[in-house]
Amino acid sequence: MTQSVQVPSRWERFKSSDFLYYFRRDKVAMFSFVVFLVFAIIALLSPWIAPTNPYDLSSIDIMNSELPPAWLDGGDASFVLGTDDQGRDILSTIFYGSRLSLTIGFLAVALQLFLGIMIGLSAGYFGGRVDSFLMRFADVQLSFSTMMVAIIVSAIFKASFGSEFYSQYAVVMLVVIIGIAEWPQYARTIRASVLAEKKKEYVEAARVMGFKSPRIMFRHILPNCLSPILVISTVQVANAIMSEAALSFLGLGLPVDQPSLGSLISIGFNYIFSGSWWITVFPGIVLVTLVLVINLLGDWLRDVFNPKIYKG
Questions:
Q1: How far apart are CA 255 and CA 86, in angstroms?
Q2: Could you give the 3-state DSSP secondary structure of residue 89?
Q3: Which domains are seen in the chain, by residue range?
Q4: d(Cα 64, Cα 279) in Å, to the nearest integer?
Q5: What is the SS3 assignment for 45?
Q6: What is the pTM of this model?
Q7: DSSP assignment of 168-181
Q8: Which residues pair with 89 in a beta bridge?
Q9: Among its keywords, does the record have Phosphoprotein (predicted)?
Q10: For residues 177 and 150, is the Cβ–Cβ distance under 8 A?
Q11: How many other C-beta atoms lie within 10 A of the C-beta of residue 130?
């Protein structure tokens, strides 16, 4: 009588995986993940947990502008972290600003990922002139700094369509700008992985079986290149958030009526020497903390997926 073998479920395989084992042993990674999760939950629930809606003009009173935090002289208990120059509650704008910053960061990385995968896979798999053309194009873009590309593209958008159009579609514009500026990082990494993978026996077997190139590229080679992609994506989310903050600080990002963390810092910078330091300091602390925990998670992922340097 044959005994049936019970195949473990995906959840059971995940619980017994090395990934979760190393995660539980790394307190920095666990702490960073918890902090990031808190930021993500606050960002998602900001319309319900924020004391006020900074987009609702009827809830803003200009007479409440530049109020200090509640624990300082002149503070108001209704505004725990104080108010900005327009009378908006800083805590509420931080909640909504985190939501915008994270949205732009993840969408920009998704665009980078799409462009990088398509270009990197094509260059590595087909080789020859296709590889030379695509990689030279990537090299040209890499010769410019990310901020330079972002500033140039942003300025062209504003000059071509006008400031009003740019303000209306600022989030989409920033996603496109940051996504276009950073895709070569993915393309070069994926190309290197594809060059190593396409010489292996399973790829040759797929070719012999008559599978077409797109199927071999996306169903056979790409899944084996996901580890470096995941590591890059984690770091790139932090870079995208910082790029958005820098562009907003320079006046090329989100408009004043759509507060992101970068635009809040930019607004407060004009008042920091007049004593209203809280407008810049609190959003700045949140931005630095958010970027730091994402980078720490990225460093941990890099070590986990590279057993040669991971020591647990």
A1: 14
A2: strand
A3: 48-55+72-304 (1.10.3720.10)
A4: 13
A5: helix
A6: 0.82
A7: HTHHHHHHHHHHHH
A8: 83
A9: no
A10: yes
A11: 14
CB of 33 closer than 8 Å to CB of 291: no
Q: What DSSP letter does each residue of 181-234 carry, written as one string?
A: HHHHHHHHHHHHHHHHHTTSHHHHHHHHTT--HHHIIIIIIGGGGHHHHHHHHH
Measured distance CA(261)–CA(259) in Å, rounded: 7
Residue 28 contacts residue 78 (beta carbons within 8 Å): no
Residue at 9: amino acid letter:
S
Q: Would you state the structure tokens that stand for residue 292, as one six-digit string?
A: 């730091």
Q: Show the tokens assigned to 33.
A: 């993940």
| Tokens representing residue 226 in the block | 């996901």
Structure tokens at 305: 């997926």
Find out whether 153 and 85 touch, Cβ atoms under 8 Å. Answer: no
Other beta carbons within 10 Å of 207: 14
Longest dimension (CA), the chain: 85
Angle (CA) 261 263 264, round 5°: 65
Nearest 5 degrees, angle CA 13-CA 15-CA 19?
90
Binned average pLDDT, 10 residues per bin, the chain of 312 residues: 56 65 80 90 88 76 77 78 81 86 88 88 84 84 76 76 74 83 84 82 80 80 80 83 79 71 76 76 87 86 65 48
